[in-house]
Amino acid sequence: MKRSLTLLLGSACVILSGFLSRAELIGYYSFDDPAAPLKDDSGSGNDLQSAGADPTYAAAGGFEGGGFEFDGFQRLIVPIDINPGAMAELTLGAWVKTSTLDPGLYKVMGHDNGGWDRTIGLDSRQGDFRYTSFIGNGRPVVGTPGPESTDDWTFLAVTYDQPNNEVTVYVDVDGSTTGDAVVSVAEPSAFGSGFPTFSIGNLRPDNDAEGWIGFIDNAFVYDEVLDSGQIKQIRDGGKEAIGGELQANDPSILVVADEVFGRLPPRPGAVEGVIQVTNEGASNALVFTSIAVTGPQSANYIAPPQFGPLAPGATGEISVLFNPGDVAGDFNATLVLETNDAATPVSTVDLFANVASPAVADNLLGFYTFDDPDNPLADSSGRANNLQEPGGDANPAFGDAAGVQGGAFTYDGGDRLIAPIDINPAAEPELTVGAWVKTSSLAPGLRKVLGHDNGGWDRTIGLDNR
Questions:
Q1: Which of 7, 171, 314, 345 is most deeply buried (CB count within 10 A of its CB)?
Q2: How far is the C-alpha of 74 from the C-alpha of 200, rounded, in Å?
Q3: How many CA atoms lie within 13 A of 50 on its CB side?
Q4: How many Å is the Cα radius of gyration of the chain?
């Protein structure tokens, strides 16, 4: 399943945008009028309805002005049909503040009637406790952040693009500031039909399932897919932006660059790193006004002085050369891209590289990263001392993302891998061995990480309670 992860920053960011020229606000609930806190401020007349389980109104308890506090069993009903058949494109959002950090299912909005329906909130399934949206197949979007405090307001929004079968979740866990990141995660999904109304405060409008515990303020509903620039306008501008005209972000830059250089062997020579850049705008060309490398070791990097422009929908690759010469250690630098993207005029890419020391590399007998799913037993030292499996039930389980960095093996106490290296004192009088490990048991015992013991005084490391 394809997943894309981006960060929207105040001044330097990588963003994912859609193709929108105009969006209509069809429901907005500021909760700011104590005399009519259920009023729809969008002008569409979609005032909230009571379900006989009303949350507690606080005239000054919201993110801005008034807000409602929910106890897990309360809800308000929005008389808007958000089913895909009625509204193929949809954007929902609100500012929320949870009153619990205990993992569970706490929904902010939903119209679920048992199918694959549109819901947002906190969810602890399929990974960490986090803000997310249901996408079907029994799971929510993964990779979004979760709450860090019961004191912080979180900005939470989601877009549903039924024609393109995609849902995108936007989260800023500290919505009171605009300088930090809004994390955005998009995943494929298609939705069925739920109830013809939806709930603020839990999973569905007809009962108290998966109720929210905490505050909700400034809930909004658009009948279009807002792009990331417009989402950022709402996060930054609050209720004034919600009630105003949102400008579509076109052109819009998308930068894809995982680890451009990372760890390198000694004296690698000139190494090329590639950064993929896409113009996700619909009409206007993406123009690069400046490309530069900054940072303490920027002199070791060469970037092209010019690039582009990129036509709408086009993708290009920016090539950066890195050459450390004979020097080892860390090389810190940043690629800075300035463009005509109005929402994100400056995008940055980390160019960090670590070059191994020749002295360490010359004496390295075996190095097992477990990072190659096609050959997890490979020796990366260059000595070809590949690991060997004993076979049968003694082989540990490999996971390509289970390690402290990349892949790792999981052992059950009866597993092992064999390194074809003689570490006896006669063969290697001086020796260093090590690894990153994570135990699955805190019970005292004897559990060895590395060893060649045959009954004598032999070299072994691990956990020991003697």
A1: 171
A2: 9
A3: 8
A4: 27
Q: Are 327 and 355 in contact (CB under 8 A)?
A: yes
Whether 366 and 385 have beta carbons less than 8 Å apart is answered as: yes
pLDDT for 329-352, tens place per residue?
999 999 999 999 877 888 899 999
Cα–Cα distance measured from residue 28 to residue 68, given in angstroms and rounded to the nearest whole number = 14
The CA distance from 128 to 148, in Å, is 12
C-alpha 25: how far from chain center: 27
Of 302, 334, 307, nearest to 318 by C-alpha is 307
Question: How far from chain centre, in Å, is Cα 305?
Answer: 31
Scanning 286-413, the segments in alpha helix (DSSP H) are: 358-362
DSSP 396: P
* Whether the Cβ atoms of residue 464 and residue 451 lie closer than 8 Å to each other: no
What residues pair up with 286 in beta bridges, in sequence order?
310
Helices (H) and strands (E) in the chain, counts: 3, 30
DSSP labels, 20-55: -S---EEEEE----TT-TT--TTSS----EE-S-PP
Q: Is the dihedral of CA 150, 93, 25, 8 positive or negative?
A: positive
CA neighbor of 242 nearest in space, from 260, 219, 263, 265: 219
* Measured distance CA(140)–CA(124) in Å, rounded: 9
Which amino acid does the sequence have at 212?
W
pLDDT in tens, 379-437: 988 889 999 999 888 999 999 888 988 899 999 999 999 999 999 999 999 999 999 99
For the stretch 446-466, pLDDT in tens is 999 999 999 888 999 999 999
Q: Give the number of other CB atoms < 10 A from CB of residue 463.
A: 15
Q: Is the Cβ–Cβ distance between 353 and 262 less than 8 Å?
A: yes
CA distance linking residue 213 with residue 104, whole number of Å: 11
| Measured CA distances, 128 to 47, 122, 147 (Å) | 35, 10, 10
Region at 377 (left for phi over 0; alpha for psi -120 to 50; beta for the rest): alpha
Task: Report yes or no: 296 and 263 within 8 Å, Cβ to Cβ.
Answer: no
Look at residue 64 and give its three-state secondary structure: coil
Cis ω before 309 (30° cut-off from 0): yes
How far apart CA 313 and CA 251 sit, in angstroms, is 9
d(CA 270, CA 300) in angstroms, rounded, equals 10
**d(Cα 210, Cα 201) in Å, to the nearest integer?**
9
- Give the up-direction half-sphere exposure of residue 437: CA atoms within 13 A in the CB hemisphere: 14
Three-state DSSP class for residue 349:
strand
Cis peptide bond prior to 251, omega within 30° of 0 = yes
